Amino acid sequence: MIPFESLDKRLLPGFERRRFFVEGQPVLAVVGGKGPPLLMLHGDPQTHLCWHHLAPRLSERFTVVLADLRGRGETHKPADGPGHEAYSKRAMAREQLAVMRSLGFSSFRLVGHDRGARVARRLALDHPEAVEKLVVMDIVPALDFYDQADAAIAQDYVYFFFLTQPQPLPESLIAGDPEGFMAQILTGLSPKTVPYDVDALDLYIKSASTPDAVAAMCACFRAGLHVDRAHDAQDRRSGRTISCPALVLWGEEGVVGQRFDVRRIWNNWCDDVRFAPMPSGHFIPEEAPEATLAALDGFL
């Protein structure tokens, strides 16, 4: 595996690697550019490098912060607990808010893909004063996902149901071929070959395949089914919505675009939302970087 530092230098020139400590635990972020702050949160099973097509160009106008989420890359990977609180998107959002405050930013623009979009959405709901604009890519909220799941969705997104099984069943089965499992996710959610940078793909697979990273992935999906879904239900009962301007992107060729009524779902969660379907499958930042950048330019 190519060292993290070497790939950052090649794919994110001019960005500075920073290590933050939140409640004593390390969170890795790379920071570059000048201008209004922009936090970008990656998906699963990836790292901050998934933004390498977009971040250097966005850094011409923004101070761009690319963080590794809890459980991925060079950020800490706490053990799961009985309530899965360590990997609730609420806890993960608080951690990313602390990173931005450590940099001196009390409010910022926020972009997330996949798991990062789930964290970003929760941050916008729980800390509306901090989020000026929100972009989420290729998700529907946990409550909508699990309540609307049918046989076709379960077949397409099998790991949403496999990874939530009680410990240690999924961890033990993945241990037989962890790299093969991660590679299947990274290549199996788009109908066409995803044009990954070969070294970035290698890093995604190998860094996500360590025992602690596999355990973190399982814990994060269990949190989605249980505590995140409960938080969503509380919000729905109380009528709480996302108040900042929001942009929702999804891959027209991916599962979210084909299986869910994206506009209807997000209209129920946002006060001010617009939509931009992308010519891609799930991994939008690397499958359709130019279309993604155009959508971000028009919104951010």
Describe this structure in words.
The chain is α/β, with parallel strands linked by helices and 300 residues long. The protein has a single domain, classed as Alpha/Beta hydrolase fold, catalytic domain (Rossmann fold). Helix content is 46%, strand content 17%. It has 15 helices and eight strands. It has an eight-stranded mixed sheet with strand order 1-2-4-3-5-6-7-8, with helices on both faces. β1 and β2 form a beta hairpin. The protein is globular. 48% of the residues are buried. The mean pLDDT is 97.
The CATH superfamily bears the name Alpha/Beta hydrolase fold, catalytic domain
Task: Tell me the quaternary state.
Answer: single chain
Helical residues, percent: 40-55%
Low-confidence stretches: none
**Alpha-beta classification:** alpha/beta
**Kindly state the mean pLDDT as a whole number?**
97
Named CATH topology: Rossmann fold
Kindly give the count of domains: 1
Radius of gyration: 17 Å
Strand content: 15-25%
* Biggest beta sheet attributes: 8 strands, mixed
What is the helix/strand order?
HEEEHEHEHEHHHHHHHEHHEHH
User: How do the strands line up in the largest sheet?
Assistant: 1-2-4-3-5-6-7-8
Q: Can you name the CATH architecture?
A: 3-Layer(aba) Sandwich
The CATH class designation is Alpha Beta
Instruction: Name the overall outline.
Output: globular
Distance between the termini: 35 Å
Describe the structure in brief:
With 300 residues, this protein is α/β, with parallel strands linked by helices. Helices cover 46% and strands 17% of the residues. An eight-stranded mixed beta sheet has the order 1-2-4-3-5-6-7-8, with helices on both faces.
